[in-house]
Amino acid sequence: MxxxxxxxxxxxxxxxxxxxxxxxxxxxxxxxxxxxxxxRFDTMKAKYKGFIPKIDTSDVAFGYDAFEEAVAEVSYAFxxxxxxxxxxxQFDKGGAVVDIxxxxxxxxxxxxxxxxxxxxxxxxxxxxxxxxxxxxxxxxDENGQLLVSIKRIEYAAAWEKVKAMNAEDAIFDAEVVxxxxxxxxxxxxxxxxxxPGSHLTGAIATxxxxxxxxxxxxxxxxxxxxxxxxxxRRAVVETQMNxxxxxxxxxxxxxxxxxxxxFVEVGGxxxxxxxxxxxxxxxxxxxxVFQPGEKVKCMIIDHDKLNGRIALSTKxxxxxxxxxxxxxxxxxxxxxxxxxxxxxxxxxxxxxREEAAKDIVLGLGDVVGDALADDGEGAVTDDLExxxx
Length: 389
Hints:
It contains eleven helices and 17 strands. It is α+β, with helices and mostly antiparallel strands. The strands form four sheets. Strands 3-2-1-4-5 form a five-stranded antiparallel sheet. The longest helix has 37 residues, at 335-371.
C-alpha cells in the first residue's frame, strides 16, 4: 500500500494526540480522589455508634464536677528522702516495681531492698503484692520513674536500736560474717561492726569463726562516722563475774609465768596468781612449780568486776603448808575439802573479831560512864575534862 505525504502527516498528528503526556501529580490526585470517595454504606457506618441507653443520674451524689475538684485537690509531689507506702506489683531484672501512686511506678533496686539483701534474690527480700514503706532516693527520670529504698529506712532504725542498746550497756549475740588480719566483722541489727582480735576470748580470728554467734558488748558507737566496735571479752568477763565470788574454787590454765607470779585463764578471764599466794613456803624458782598450759585449781581471793580482773591463790588450798611445792596434785585433789575447812576457819575468825570489837565498844561505854560522875548536888562533872583541863 502506498501512502502519500499528506496522509503520513495526518496519521502522525493523530498518534501524538493519542499519547499526550500527563504530569505524575495530576494522575495521582485523580486516582486518590477516586479511592477516597466514601460509599453510602461507609457514610452510614461512620455516623452510627450503636445504641446509647439513657441513664438517670439525678440520684448520684458524686458528679463529674466533684470528681474534677477532688483530682485537683490531690498533691502528686514526691520529693527526695520522703517516706511513702507502696505495693510491690512486679519483679523486674535487678529489683522490683513498686506502685506508690506516682505518674509512673517506682523501682526498688535489689541492693536497696534491705540491710540483709546482699547475696540474695529479690523475691527472698520482698513479697509480691505486699505493702512496704520506701524512701525516695532520686528525682524523676525522663519517664517519670523514681528510685526507692527500704534499706535506708532499716539503716536509720538499726542505728536507733544500737544507740538504745549501748545506753543500756546490754550484752547481745551477733554472728561473725568475715575475718581479717585485725579481727572479725559481725552483724549487729544488720550493721557491720568490728571485733578486734585482742577482744576475742578463747578464740582467734580465723575462717572457722565465720558463722558463729558470740556474746558481745559495745566498745564504741559513733553515729557521725558510722563506726561500731564491739568486744567479746567484755561480755564474757561480765557474765563470768556475775557467777564468781570471793572464796570460790575455780579451774584454770596457766598461760604465762612472770617473776612476780603466774597468769591463769579462768573462764575466759585472766587472773593473777601472785608468787606470795602460791604456797606458805618460800618459792625461789616459779618454773619448778608451774609450766604454761598446766591445769590448776585456785581460790578467788579478790576480784574487780568493772575491769574484769581476779586475784587467785593456791596457798589457801594447801592441806599442810608447803604442799604446793611437795605434791601439787594432792592439793588440787583435795581443793574443795580444804576450801571448806578454810571457810570455816575464816568464819570463826570473823566471829571472833566481831566479839572482840563488841567487847571493846562495851568497855569504852563503861569508861565513859565512870568518867561522868554526880557531885552530889545534882551537877555532873566530867573527870576527863578535869584531867585534860
